[in-house]
């Protein structure tokens, strides 16, 4: 009985070692593992893919990441429900209650418009064509919020659909402060109105926190 149970497991382990070795030699995206976990494994978290074709600008969720209006950060949002060390076949983590308005995220249309919320306009309804593609990175003046006047001075060419604003928030490392700081630099109402009326921008990252879609496009 025991043999029957063990054999498939051994086979599985052998197969996964072969697989890891094969992949390691053929693709630099995977960590090089010269044997079956005898060396220290170091996770590789890449931010740039394809020589700059894709930049991962998401912040990893951390317990001490700022959370809207909170002094205590995000708190414990992840725990291990099943653990290999405790005899389970797999590690299975569990996400616990935390605001989806946390970390790097996209605001759904229903976030600020109640009639959209009632009609079910959640993030699933957003257009992936709009969310993916070339973006213009713009350094904005560090001594101002993004007002209409600032927007105008940036001279963002027509035809640009996606922009990322690099603001004082990044310099101040606000995403690394546990306590939520209400003085973050952001896109002001008149700046947003100017953007809608005078540019082709449909996707913006105004604070390094929220990605915002220009609702007029939908
Ligand atoms: C598996 O669970 C152990 C704790 O039993 C943990 O230390 C380890 O990081 C987990 N591995 C993965 C890949 O989640
Ligand atoms: C493993 O089990 C022990 C005893 O039940 C428990 O205290 C511990 O939290 C468990 N650890 C994990 C990572 O599940
Ligand atoms: C941006 O506006 C906030 C209030 O919303 C303010 O606290 C902050 O000082 C302003 N930032 C700059 C650079 O003017």
UniProtKB/TrEMBL annotation:
The species this protein belongs to is: Quercus rubra (Northern red oak)
Q: Which GO terms describe its molecular function?
A: arylformamidase activity
Family membership, please give it: Belongs to the Cyclase 1 superfamily.
A Pfam family for this UniProt protein? Cyclase
The answer, when asked if Signal is one of the entry's keywords, is yes
What are the protein's UniProt keywords? Extracellular matrix, Secreted, Signal
What lineage does the source organism belong to?
Answer: Eukaryota, Viridiplantae, Streptophyta, Embryophyta, Tracheophyta
Q: What is the recorded name of this protein?
A: Uncharacterized protein
Report the main location listed first in the record.
Answer: secreted
């Amino acid at each position: 009985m025991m043999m029957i149970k063990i054999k498939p497991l051994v086979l599985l382990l052998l197969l996964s070692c072969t697989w890891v070795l094969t992949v390691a030699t053929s693709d630099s995206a995977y960590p090089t593992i010269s044997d079956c976990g005898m060396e220290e494994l170091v996770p590789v978290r890449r931010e740039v893919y394809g020589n700059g074709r894709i930049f991962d600008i998401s912040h990893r969720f951390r317990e001490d990441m700022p959370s809207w209006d909170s002094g205590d950060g995000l708190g414990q949002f992840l725990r291990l429900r099943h653990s290999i060390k405790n005899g389970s076949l797999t590690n299975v983590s569990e996400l616990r209650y935390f605001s989806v308005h946390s970390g790097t995220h996209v605001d759904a249309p229903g976030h600020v418009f109640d009639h959209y919320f009632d009609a079910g306009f959640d993030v699933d309804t957003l257009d992936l064509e709009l969310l993916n593609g070339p973006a213009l990175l713009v350094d904005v003046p560090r001594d101002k919020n993004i007002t209409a006047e600032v927007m105008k001075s940036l001279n963002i060419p027509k035809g640009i659909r996606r922009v990322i604003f690099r603001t004082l928030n990044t310099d101040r490392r606000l995403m690394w402060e546990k306590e939520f700081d209400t003085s973050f630099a952001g896109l002001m109402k008149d700046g947003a109105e100017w953007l809608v009326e005078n540019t082709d921008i449909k996707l913006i990252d105004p604070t390094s926190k929220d990605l915002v879609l220009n609702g007029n496009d939908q």
